Amino acid sequence: DRSRSCPYLDTINRSLLDFDFEKLCSVSLSHLNVYACLVCGKYFQGRGRKSHAYTHSVEFNHHVFLNLYTLKFYCLPDNYMIVDSSLEDITYVLNPTFTKPDIRQLSSDAKLMRAYDGTTYLPGIVGLNNIKANDYCNVVLQALSHVPPLRNYFLREENYSHIKRPPGDIMILLSQRFGELIRKLWNPRNFKAHVSPHEMLQSIVLCSRKRFQITKQGDPLDLLTWFLNSMNVALNGSKKRNSSKWNQHFNLLNTFFKNTNFTPAKTPILTLAKHQYHPLVNLGILTKTFQGEMKIYSRKIPSPETLKKGNHIAPTTILTSIFPFQPEDIKQKLLKEAEYQETMERSPFLYLALDLPAAPLYKDELEHNIIPQVPLATLLAKFNGQSEKGKRDSTMKRFEITRLPPYLIFYIKRFTKNLFFIEKNPTIVNFPVTNIDLEELIAVDADVPNTCYDLVANIVHDGDPNEGKGSYRVHILHQSPVPNKWYELQDLHVSDILPQMITLSEAYIQIWALRKGKKADQENA
C-alpha cells in the first residue's frame, strides 16, 4: 500500500516549516484549499493537475504536501494520501491540542523543552516576532497569555468553537486567532523557540478597522481596553453581572429549590448562581477574570461664574473694589440645593487608573534630572473612599471598591499629550512584587474576604514617548511549584530577571493575581 510506504518521507525538511503565517497560496494569494509543501515550506493552492501545488511538485521535485485545514498528508503528483505516524509531530505543531490533564500540568511542570532546531525554551516563555512596530501588541499578548483562567479557556478550542455570531461578523476571528496563538505559545513540542503573531496581528488590524497597525506603534492600554471589550463581544459575553436575565434565572432557581426537598448543601448550582458563575448566564471569561466594581461618589461645586451671578453687586463697580464681596453665603445656600448634593452610583471597571504626581521642573545641584519615586500605596489612596479628585466640569469625585476581580489591572498614567508632542513622567513607582493588601480600599458594607494580590505581569516603557522612538517590554512570572521565576521578554529577546530589578523599571501596566485564603495565610504565619 503506497499510503503507508511513501518513498519521499525522507525529503521532508522540518527546519523550514513555519505555520505561523497566514494560510495563503504563495502564487494565487487564495485562502481556499491551501497545502503546505513539507520540503520547502511554501504554501500552494489545490491538488489537481492544473493546481499550483501540482505544478510546484513537478517543477521542483517536491512530493509531500499537507492540507492546512484537514491536516491530511498527500504525495504529488501521484496524488495519494500518506498515512504515517512519524508525521504526527508536524500536525501537532500546526494545531496543538491540550487535554485537561495537560493544562493542569502546565502549572506544576517547569521543565525546559528542546525545539527541533536545538534551542531550549520554557512553554509559555517564548519570544514573539516584531514584524515592524508591533512591540506594543506583543507585550499585551504575552501578559494575557500568563493569566491562568484566560490561558486555560483558550487552550481548549471546544470552549469557544461552538459560539455563533451573526453572518458576516468578523469578530469571531479575534477569538480564533487568539486561541491559536495561546496554544502555540504553550506548545511543548515546537520546532523553534519563538512564535510569529502574524495572524493574530492581522485579525487585530481587521477587527479594529485599522485603528491598531503593525507598522505604527500604538498605546498598549488602548489595545488592551479594546481587546478585552471586543473579545467579550466575540464570545457573546455579558458585561453586567447583575443583569435582569441573571436575576430572573436566580429567582427561578430559588422558587424551584423551595418547592423541592433539595437543600443548598446538596445543590451547588444555587451557590454558583448566588455568585457570578451561574451556568445559565454567560458572563464571559473576561468579565469573570478582570471585572471589578466600585462606588463613585460625585458632588458638584459652584463655579466662580455661578457665584458671580448670585452676587447682586456687579463685579466691575467701585463698591466691590472698596468692599470686596465674599460670596460664602451664596455658596452655602447653593450647596443646600439638590443639584449640589452628593450622588452615588455603582460602576464596573476593567482596570484602575493611577495618577502619578507631577515630575519636578528643575534639575538638582549636580545638573542632573531628578527621578522622583512614589510608593504604590500613595497612588492607590485615590480609591480609599475619602480622597476627592476634581474634574473639569466642577465635579468632585471619590471612589471606593465594592468587589475585587480575580485578576486586577493597574494602569499608571505616564503620558500626557499637548498640542505639539507627548510628555512622559519618569517617576518610579515603588511596589512589592508579592502580597499587596487592598483592604483599606474596600467599602465598609462590601463583603470581600480576600484582598491580597501578587504581581504576575508588568509592562514597561523605555525611551522617548513619541511615536516610533520608545520601546515596550514585559516582565512575566512563570508560576511553578518550585520558587517562581521572573522573565523579561522584549520581542524575541527572553532572559531571566531578579524580582528586585522589576521595581526599578518605569511600570506602565500591571496585572495582579488575587491570593486566596489571606486569613489562613496570616494564621499560619
Automatic annotation (TrEMBL):
Residue ranges annotated for the USP domain, each copy included: 126-515
Entry GO terms, CC: spliceosomal complex
Protein name: ubiquitinyl hydrolase 1
GO terms for MF: cysteine-type deubiquitinase activity; zinc ion binding
Family statement drawn from the similarity comment of this UniProt entry: Belongs to the peptidase C19 family.
InterPro entries with a match to the protein in the record: Papain-like_cys_pep_sf, Peptidase_C19_UCH, Ub_carboxyl-term_hydrolase, USP, USP39, Znf_RING/FYVE/PHD, Znf_UBP
Ranges where the UBP-type domain occurs: 4-101
Alphabetized PROSITE patterns for the sequence: USP_3, ZF_UBP
Signal peptide: none
Enzyme class: hydrolase
Keywords (A to Z) from UniProt: Metal-binding, mRNA processing, mRNA splicing, Nucleus, Spliceosome, Ubl conjugation pathway, Zinc, Zinc-finger
Localization: Nucleus
GO-annotated biological processes: protein deubiquitination; spliceosomal complex assembly
A Pfam family: UCH
Gene3D superfamilies: Cysteine proteinases, Zinc/RING finger domain, C3HC4 (zinc finger)
EC numbers: 3.4.19.12
Catalytic reaction(s) noted: Thiol-dependent hydrolysis of ester, thioester, amide, peptide and isopeptide bonds formed by the C-terminal Gly of ubiquitin (a 76-residue protein attached to proteins as an intracellular targeting signal)
Primary residence: nucleus
